[in-house]
Amino acid sequence: MTDHEKSRVSPALEAKDVADAALEQLFEAAQKNAPLPSGDLMARILADAAAEQAKNQAQEAPRRAAPSPVLGLRAALGGWAGLSGLAGAVALGLMIGIFPPDGLTSYTDLVLGSGSTGLSDYLPGLEGVSIDG
Amino acid sequence: MALDAMSEVSPRISDEALLVLYANGDPDAARSLMVRLTPRVMAQAFRMLNDRAEAEDITQEAMLRLWKIAPEWRQGEAMVTTWLYRVVGNMCVDRLRRRRGSPLDEAPEIADEAPSVADRMQSKTRIDALQQALGTLPERQRQAVVLRHIEGLQNPEIAEIMEISTEAVESLTARGKRALKTALSGRSEELGFSDD
């Protein structure tokens, strides 16, 4: 088929191809000629950035200077390790108080005596004094 | 300082890392981000609005939102550029809807690559023609065409920016291109395509 015949057979297709190619060239021209921001705009944007940064820093400063009471207690106890050690000790003490082991009861009897202890054991001079008056 | 020289700042640090540095008080990070991002924001806004003053307003406002969000920026969730393109796109669509029906044309100050006077004139004619044709598209079609064919983004990123599916992006750009061809039909000779 000659070139002349081709152009007669598919004019619509050829026109479409030309339109596609032309559009691609327009896109390319637009990419190469992007509108540049002016110096004035850049200066305004930098000024905004500086102002916002200063505002953020000012808000951050008091938060850094005064940590919350919980954070302060945690730090005083030596951080998370100290805090978890304390919690463990409390839990163990509670368990011993509720379910004392047998050996522990005989030991306290040995030290403190098995009978009841009253005020007169410690202050015998007050034996005849009536508290009720 | 020339824009090209300024853009040499911190070329290997990611936008996100620069934003974190900015939030932590680094004074140079803002300049680096501005040099990298402002031309892209400005180009997108101008292509959408075809008005330099409005495009500058949108650019400044979009960058201000970036500075404000910096301390709360959630790392690894979205690219800074994706977030910015979304903000700018939404702001431009809002403006277009508000001013629908009022044509505004203003020639942009364009990057000069020292072509001949004739080439420059033809280039300007073509860009103006494209800009006018873009102005005839519905807002979302225009946004998709600008991001795909002028900003050169890939469809998945455009889908994320516009919060639609990739298929919807393909559909918008295809319809947009068809509409552009229709709008430009009959101007081949004026635009210098008759001899191509």
Structural account:
The complex is a heterodimer of chains A (133) and B (196). Chain A has 133 residues and is mostly helical. Chain A has 2 domains: 9-65, no CATH class; 69-115, no CATH class. Chain A has helices at residues 3-9, 11-32, 39-65, 69-76, 79-98, 102-112, 119-122. Chain A starts with a helix and ends in an 11-residue tail after the last helix. Residues 1-10 of chain A have low confidence and may be disordered. In chain B, helix 4 (52-69) packs across helix 5 (80-98). Chain B is mainly alpha-helical and 196 residues long. The N and C termini of chain B lie far apart (40 Å). The interface between A and B is large, with 32 and 50 residues.
Question: Which SSEs are present, and which pair or pack?
Answer:
The complex is a heterodimer of chains A (133) and B (196).
Chain A: H1 3-9, H2 11-32, H3 39-65, H4 69-76, H5 79-98, H6 102-112, H7 119-122
Helix pairs in contact in A: 4-5
Chain B: H1 3-6, H2 15-23, H3 27-49, H4 52-69, H5 80-98, H6 117-134, H7 139-150, H8 155-162, H9 166-184
For the termini of chain A, the CA-CA separation is 136 Å
Terminal CA distance of chain B: 40 Å
Beta strands of chain A, count: 0
C-alpha geometry of chain B: globular
Just name the CATH architecture of the largest domain in chain B.
Answer: Orthogonal Bundle
Contiguous helical run count of chain B: 9
| Cα-based radius of gyration of chain A, to the nearest Å | 45 Å
The major beta sheet of chain A can be summarized as: none
Which fold name fills CATH's third level, the topology of the largest domain in chain B?
Rna Polymerase Sigma Factor, Chain: A
* The CATH H-level homologous superfamily of the largest domain in chain B: RNA polymerase sigma factor, region 2, helix turn helix motif
**Number of structurally distinct domains of chain B:** 2
Determine the number of helices of chain A (DSSP H or I, runs of at least 4 residues).
7
Number of strands of chain B: 0
Kindly state the mean pLDDT of chain B as a whole number? 85
Structural class, from secondary structure content of chain A? mainly alpha
Question: What is the alpha-carbon Rg of chain B in Å?
Answer: 18 Å
Helix residue percentage of chain A: over 70%
Quaternary state reads heterodimer
